[in-house]
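Entry 14. Ran structure prediction on the chain below.
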Amino acid sequence: MSKALIVFLIYLPFAVFAQKSVTVDKIDTLILSDFKQEKVLRYSINNVLICIPIDNYLKELNVTRKTYKWLVKQNKKEEKWIKSSDSKTRSDEELLRYVVIDSVYKYVKSTSKREDTVDISNEVFSDLGLSSLVDFDKFIEQDYCAIFDKQGKQHYKIIRESITNYYGRKAISGWRKYYLKEKRLFFLEDRDWVS
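Output, structure tokens:
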């Protein structure tokens, strides 16, 4: 009997009986204070507007922008050595993402010179398979933002739910989800860890 077959037979019972499950570890309420800034980025995501300082948004977005610029350059170098359809597709996707991220960065930077509030929608990024590119959970946790529903009402109480995903008995990832307390409306999630 081959080693591969033996390993397969040993792990087969675990694979057959392992199930994916989700456990809510903790639910708590965060209280946001008044948020006052001269220059604000208003980010639309899941029927909520998250407001943070424009400078902080630009700083975080610039890190991602530089990373994608580097990826595009690396892929061009690889393409000289590897001429396959996969590398070309990956390169094209990353180039498109870089162009969008760069355009948003330049738009926010130039618009913020003329206006106090700049609006961005998460749809710009999600259409490309990207997340918000800025850690909005960090701003919520540090009480350095304001959150409004689509009707313009500011919400100060935010529910934070800590979740662990399991596959069988093994914990495979941990998340935090955020909801508007008053409406029980989910609006943001962030992965904390993956094993």
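The helical segments are 3-17, 54-81, 85-114, 123-126, 136-141. Will compare against last week's run tomorrow.
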